[in-house]
Predict the 3D structure of the following.
Amino acid sequence: MKRILARVSLCVLAAAGLYVISDVSRTVSANQQCVDHSKDPAGCQPSTFDTPMAQMPSVRVNRQGQIDPHSSEADAKAGAFEVEKRLFLFRNMEHIHWVPLIPSERDPATGAWRGGDLDGSGDGRGLGVAGNCIFVGHANGAGVRRAVNILKIQPDPAKRQPVVVGEIPAMVEGNEGFDDRELRSLVYKTSRGDDRYILVRNAGTNTLGRMQTYRIDMNTCLPTANSEVVDFYSQSHEFFLWHDPANTNRVLVYMTNWTGGVPDPTSPGLKVPDLLVIAVTDEDTGEMLMKPKFLAGFTLQEVGGPPIDERPDATGLFSDGRFLDFSDSKNGLGQAGNFQNREQNRLHSVSVTDDGERVYVAGTTAGFYVLDSEKIAHSRDAMLANGTAGCNQRSTILSENGILVAAKIPEIANDCLHMVVNNDPGLKAFLASNASSEAKAARYLVLMTRSRFDVYPPVNASPTGTHSAVFVPGRPARVRGNTKGRPAYVWLSDENGGCPLNYARMVSVESEMVPIMVGAFAIPDNQVEECLTQATTEPNGQPRRRIPQQNHNPTIFRNLVFTTWYAHGLRVIDISNPHTPREVGHALTVPQGVARTYPVFKDGLIYWVDNDTGLHVARYTGPRADELPGPGTGTYEGNATSPHR
């Protein structure tokens, strides 16, 4: 009875705000502090940063951080850094350098500056970093032909910012300058022990894509030779640069084709593959190939996947469901929320394991899936190129007159690039059985659908969907039979414009055949209520320019993800527990821009290009910073074999 009365008394006191357990509790309550007993290196951490749109200027500021198109360059940079401190836009990140690359122009009538990185009006695109060289691409177009900037990293790079030492002219066709949307560079040794440096350039328009390789002088960072231009006859988009650990002479490009379904002029009757594997160096000498070699290709639609640009029936129903409709909701500008009536089902980007045996695919609205690339990893380029490597150079075409031919399904396992589901012994046994053709086709399609982690629909995904798929290094799956140490997890970024925005997902590939989501990370603006009520004006009340806000490109370490999130900056996420990712740092630059490229790590510093404001350099100082590669450990990025020099 006394215990019961005591409990009642304590509850009454607690309800009245009078009962305090201890001095520690009183301190925690008074100061809103966290006491951590977990021994977690991250300790207590604030919630995910809510981007202060209403307070963040997206245009040029003066030394006091106020919007001012007349301020000098020195004042604009000083004011931007001041606003970053005032609004806590950098946490556990030190903003070391800001290198504007697009100059501003002065309006002769008003004296105001406009059009440059300092004004939030730049046009940055691709980023390549290797050795002591940096290459930055730009958006181009009709009458616009901005060159690739070449910068050199200086001694003591934390104190001295990179300097421009040259340029590579823009690719042009007629009056149209090509966007330099993707750049990758690599320093490597040939089998003879000679140092070599190459830069791979992927440039294009809204309909065309072309690739060129350059030999780079390691000392000057300038090109000394270039390959022939590879024309994809379609819009090439992103690519992964793979360096063969078994043959240092061998460097391959895994290029994605964003257009899809385009006839291939080099192979009449066939289409340009959605994923193309191309050799850019000589496998015997390590020298840059003057004419890159096409080795293999993959197209999901050819092997029975969903069609390109799938449209719904009259009721809005797709073959796999219907999308959520937020069009009745309006934001502050009266713009409707998300809804879409098309699934593009294209292939967007990939990452390749160090051994080259697996390719992790970000397949837009067709979802995420895994490809077997063992034949490419372990065959000679010459044999792949001439079709004598013992595998089909292109994906097996399953349909004839729109009907899936069950007898062709077993052939897919012999494609140089194929989905891992085709390796399953149970599927192979069923296809070899006496079951009917209809039963075999049905079984295959069910398993192939399950082998794709596909949330579209109902999740909206315009313009992309699953944007990037980068495996988590240093965390092999513990499942039986994983003798190759293949990854347990892949991080997916999910690009979607409008409102609501999409977020990032942690997917388990412990079963490569059936990937499943085990964790997720989002920012406050991923909630429809938040994105609908975002500020529509600058801090001084003038109309705010529209800034895209999609989740984009990640570079990943064992316990940390560094991902560019467009207008929400560079976000640092602790994934030590893959089921509960949490933010441990962020970097949002002023003027507010579009953090877009894969962050590149070199000698303890982080480099990224903002579409609107140019090149930025920072240092992460937060939890687990001691786990990151330091000086002399190489270059790390999410879209190339890492580390490299």
Q: What stands out?
A: The two ends are 74 Å apart (CA to CA).
